[in-house]
């Protein structure tokens, strides 16, 4: 087995824990209540896709949305981590998208069913390269943006998050032990919108990183 290199966490990390509705302006744009406790869901590591490989549109959706997010890469595992120690468990960050089949999610919501097929399909988690912790000294105050075909769609700041990164690490680890190589997606600011085949997506963390991705209609069931 190759040794675990945190800068390639997507090759061996075991889970992706996502936080829904962590920005009030996004919760409101989809007419959802602003949460009083974090809303969690999971993506499998098979959802990862890297810059240079396309984002696939599953055949079962006609409303695939982008959601740009700050991802937190766990460097040291733990259970019931206190907020005061939470940042010691962070190895770094990644710029991430939480691709969402919005029509399927709406259907699942209306039936009270889980969001799995809306959120966890192949290529539903595009990620940038690993960003070492030192490059983002204040993750609670970075600007995230996303353009579709050069048009700005999402622009927000992590200072707008309802639940902070230390709070989320502590909260999640009370229920789900965090392990080295896990990724936490911290939620998306407002401006989510539908993408089509051949759209060009560009996303960034201001002054830190940008990434470019392309959308391709999936020839197979995703
Ligand atoms: O699908 C949604 O709107 C929930 C979500 O992932 C987010 O708010 O980041």
* Average pLDDT: 96
Q: Using the CA coordinates, give the radius of gyration.
A: 16 Å
CATH superfamily: Fumarylacetoacetase-like, C-terminal domain
β-strand amount:
25-35%
Q: What is the CATH domain class?
A: Alpha Beta
As for the CATH topology, it is Fumarylacetoacetate hydrolase, domain 2
Low-confidence stretches: none
| Class computed from helices, strands and strand pairing | alpha+beta
Q: Which CATH architecture would you pick? A: Alpha-Beta Complex
- DSSP helix count? 4
- Tell me the number of strands: 16
Order of secondary-structure elements: EHEEEEEEEHHEEEEHEEEE
Produce the secondary structure layout:
Layout: E1 16-20, H1 24-29, E2 39-43, E3 48-50, E4 55-57, E5 64-65, E6 68-74, E7 90-97, E8 100-101, H2 102-111, H3 116-119, E9 125-127, E10 131-132, E11 143-148, E12 151-157, H4 165-175, E13 183-185, E14 194-195, E15 200-205, E16 209-217
This protein binds oxaloacetate ion.
Residues 18, 20-21, 26, 30, 67, 98, 100, 105, 187-188 line the site of oxaloacetate ion.
């Amino acid at each position: 087995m190759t040794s675990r290199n945190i800068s390639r966490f997507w090759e061996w990390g075991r889970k992706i824990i996502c936080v829904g509705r962590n920005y009030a302006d996004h919760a409101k744009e989809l007419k959802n209540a602003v949460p009083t406790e974090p809303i969690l869901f999971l993506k499998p590591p098979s959802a990862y896709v890297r810059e240079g490989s396309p984002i696939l549109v599953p055949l079962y959706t006609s409303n695939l949305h982008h959601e740009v997010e700050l991802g937190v890469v766990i460097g040291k595992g733990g259970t019931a981590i206190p907020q005061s120690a939470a940042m010691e468990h962070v190895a770094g960050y990644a710029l991430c998208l939480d691709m969402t089949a919005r029509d399927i999610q709406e259907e699942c919501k209306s039936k009270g069913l889980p969001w799995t097929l809306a959120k966890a399909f192949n290529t539903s988690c595009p990620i940038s390269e690993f960003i070492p912790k030192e490059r983002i000294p204040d993750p609670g105050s970075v600007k995230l943006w996303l353009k579709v075909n050069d048009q700005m769609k999402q622009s927000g700041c992590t200072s707008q998050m309802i639940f902070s990164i230390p709070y989320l690490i502590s909260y999640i680890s009370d229920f789900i032990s965090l392990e080295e190589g896990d990724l936490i997606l911290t939620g998306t600011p407002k401006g989510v919108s539908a993408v089509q085949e051949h759209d060009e997506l560009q996303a960034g963390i201001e002054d830190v990183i940008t990434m470019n991705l392309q959308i391709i209609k999936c020839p197979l069931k995703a």
